[in-house]
Amino acid sequence: METVYTVKGMTCGHCVSSVSAEIGRINGVTGVRIDLATGAVAVTSTEPLAQAAVAAAVDEAGYELIGAQS
Ligand SMILES: [Cu+2]
C-alpha cells in the first residue's frame, strides 16, 4: 500500500535524503519517494502505518509532517 504525506520545510536533496532515511527505518516501509517541489512524500509499506510514527520520523529528521492523503 502507499500513503502520501505532506512534509514542510524540505529545501534540497539533503533534506530529501534525511527524511527518506528516517521514514525508511519504520517497520513495514518498503519505499519512500519524495517530490521536493510539493513536499509530497509517498511511502509504500506492507501494512498500514501509524501516522504518529511517520510524524515522529519526519520530526527526527528535522521537518514537520503537516498532513496525509490516501
Ligand atoms: Cu536540504
UniProtKB/TrEMBL annotation:
Coiled-coil regions, chain positions: none
Xref: Gene3D superfamilies: 3.30.70.100
Alphabetical list of CDD domains matching this protein: HMA (cd00371)
SUPFAM superfamilies named among the record's database cross-references: HMA, heavy metal-associated domain
Keyword vocabulary terms for this entry: Metal-binding
Pfam family, any one: HMA
The keyword Metal-binding is assigned to this record: yes
Superkingdom of origin: Bacteria
Domain HMA: from-to ranges: 1-66
Protein name from the UniProt record: Heavy-metal-associated domain-containing protein
Annotated source species: Catellatospora aurea
